[in-house]
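Chain A, query sequence.
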Amino acid sequence: MMALGLSYWGFFGLILALIGLPLHWILPRKIGRRLGRALTQRLFAMFVVFLRLSDLVRADLTALDGLKHIKHPLIAAPNHTSLWDVVFLIARLPQAICLIKKPILSNPILGIGARLAGYIANDGGNRSFRKASEALLQGGQLLLFPEGTRTRPEAAWINPLKGGCALIAIRSQVPVYPIFIRSNTRFLQKGWPLWRRPVFPISITIELGAPLSPTHGESAHAFTARLTEVYERELSKPHPLRREYDSTTIF
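Chain A, predicted structure.
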């Protein structure tokens, strides 16, 4: 079943690429982006159904439904436990705008669908932050991982947060909704080989935190510190799926 799941991405990713390439050039940008995001959401949602039916993963995603009914622009900001976090998030967020690593846009399978959906390449520069702010001002929901990469094995709760989330929130004057992801495994975390089999079934919970808004005159550094405190306080609470700190883990 795990091998079948990996094959799913190869097959449907190729189909999306073949469909997305002509649509990217033919459709008006606004229509193409909405269609691209909808197609990506359906692709991810079907994969989540496969994981549930095969009993590979038991994931509680109901907390994300609260974001669907929010009309104002916002930043959805999860901690980044695993390579597939984005799958579970986009599966419940039909029109999310993603700030993704630049190499993904060059990927022959994933890149075409990402371009059609209007996802923004995160190169760490002002250009990507400006594009993200513009998308928010147009009424979007931006999906952004404040850590910038997956949580490292030696990290207790999260990596030190990057400043991009705070910069975009301050520039756009939109709230940040922290999202807390917990799991009983470190499968596909930073340094985990793709071929290494985890213990199944995998349990995942996703919880939505209270929004944080930048205050008048607040610096990006100060806002990042506030956000860091929220993640560390929440993720360190007693929980059946709380991350177990292991500084000796080597992959």
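Strands lie at 57-60, 74-78, 96-101, 120-122, 141-143, 176-183, 202-208. The mean pLDDT is 88.
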